[in-house]
Amino acid sequence: MEKKIKNYKDLEEFLKNYYNLYQNNSPKYxxxxxxxxxxxYILEKLGHPEKKIKSVNxxxxxxxxxxxxxxxxxxxTENIKIGMIxxxxxxxxxxxxxxxxxxxxxxxxxxxxxxxxxxxxELKEENYAISDFEMMYFVGLYYFVKKDVKFLVLEAGMGGKxxxxxxxxxxxxxxxxxxxxxxxxxxxxxxxxxxxxxxxxENSKYIISGxxxxxxxxxxxxxxxxxxxxxxFIKDNFYPExxxxxxxxxxxxxxxxxxxxxxxxLDLLGKFQAINATIALKTYFKLKELGILNKKINxxxxxxxxxxxxxxxxxxxxxxxPLIIVDGAHNEHKMGALYKSLKKIYGSRKFLCILxxxxxxxxxxxxxxxxxxxxxxxFTEFSTTKSFTVKDLGNIAKxxxxxxxSKRKNLKKAIKMGxxxxxxxxxxxxxxxxxxxxxxxxxxxx
Length: 446
Prior knowledge:
This protein is α/β, with parallel strands linked by helices.
């Protein structure tokens, strides 16, 4: 029997131990993995909070976090209590659960986890366990009902068949895009992955999507026809135009059949951020059209809301002279978007790249994406979860005929080496490959 958590230090220790047990598939926590039986049981025990608040569910291979945050900021202009669940966090686990501008308090987080601990103990007796990721999701849903939140933005995990967000009271499901990731659970091809993700929209009548590939659009259109849903595609029904990138920000215009909002500025870098903001805007306007929100449009508030968004480790410039950029790109799709943005902003400029990857990623495909703009790699490892060894990354680099690389298992030594080499060789420093890496780097750069 787990003891009741009394303070935040105890909570951090509990979450750390729980995470390590789950990651290592400890016998103590029985059969982990995915499935709904345990999730339905927990939600029933909590009084089904997922049914009590209307929400938007944001799923996709990449862009979920940015799109969720853009939408969250837009909804905050409506002067109602808005909640959001997002993951992973960058610096503080409380970042995952917030109401308007406030992270869940330490006391509230302790109280909510204490509510769930007895249920976890029952699950262990039945040979079931949940991940720390799922636990924070259930904590968030329970917390939002307690705080009388009026609307939710839910960033899914994998999204789709196995994702707990699918059972929530989702008015709209956003599918940002589809790429190859989580293949052990979702499948190995984009059509297969999309078919799984579409199951995440079972409670939604409306789907708003950033998908542009013809075959994937056809699959989604067919699904919507069969299930009496309405789908809106970027480029077909709404789109960003006049996208202009500088080294400091991104500017664009939003266009659909009803609205044309010019000169939107994001203090974020990358064409993909203009796309994510456009998807969030379409979702926001659809909620107004449906009467979920006040139908009045205030362009100035919209621009302020989008401009005030900041996401750590998304093409984040942590130092200007010398230039150091931290980005959490962790799959082929995200790394491709990072490459395109850096190419667009910095032209032919080459980077010194510190890179570490989670061990379940396709390292070869990820390295291929970023390779053209890298002069030299420094491979390293992170400690918060299992990563590729520097030896493994070195061998993969050799297979790709990448010769100019160094290996530093210790992250602090890798950063020190990167700073020195960057200065000596006049190369900007790019640190990427995982949000786990970004978190440790930002702690080290404090």
